[in-house]
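SAMPLE LOG
Freezer: B-3
Tube label: C17
Construct: single chain, 248 aa
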Amino acid sequence: MELLAGFVIALAISLTGVGAGSMTTPVLILLLGVRPATAVGTALAFGAIVKLISAPVYILRRDVNWRVLLLLFAGGLPGVIAGSLLLNRFKTGPYERLLYTALGSLIVLSAGYHLYRAFRPQHRSAVVDRSRFLPWLAVPIGAEVGFSSAGAGALGSLLLLGFTPLTALEVIGTDLCFGLGLSFAGSVIQLGAGNYDAILLLKLVAGGVCGAICGSLLAGKIAPRPLRVGLLLTLILLGFQLAAYTAI
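STRUCTURE (predicted):
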């Protein structure tokens, strides 16, 4: 089951571009019965490994703006530390039930925003370089990633599109490296706190490698938009289920 989950998640990421964190956490909790903190830590590590496979391609193509990336990290890394510590604080006792609601709500919001952008594509006009604001705006993104493993892809690209004059490829490459850094930092904190399942992670990665390969072979042969919309609607339903899990 874990191998299949990793395969399906990686395949969906390859075909739709939906972030690993938004998918992995609810799947682990609702389908595999993993505790919330363990699910987030495992999802962060899985997301970092998946992104690590893709990031070198953009770096070699010089589609990563290192100055902008450092500005994002200046706010995002302190944010992910704060979010990870907050998750560790809520993982046991009476707060755990609240944790389900918080995680489910963040996943619904993240998937809903992706769905909004799918139907309302952004047309860029000339953008003034306001990258000096990026460290401050990256703090809540990092906190969301550290707490739920979701959000870096959609919110990071939104920042880059609205506050920098980067090209489309630079936005993708820089945001991918930003997500990789946040996932790596968050996973290190969660691994140190014991919020992970090593065997589960290995099975997810084994299935994920196969899924990523299949996705790369199918890319361009399957219309991504219907798959993306269907997947986002599924994530919204999973998020609501996760939020309502506290009532059980």
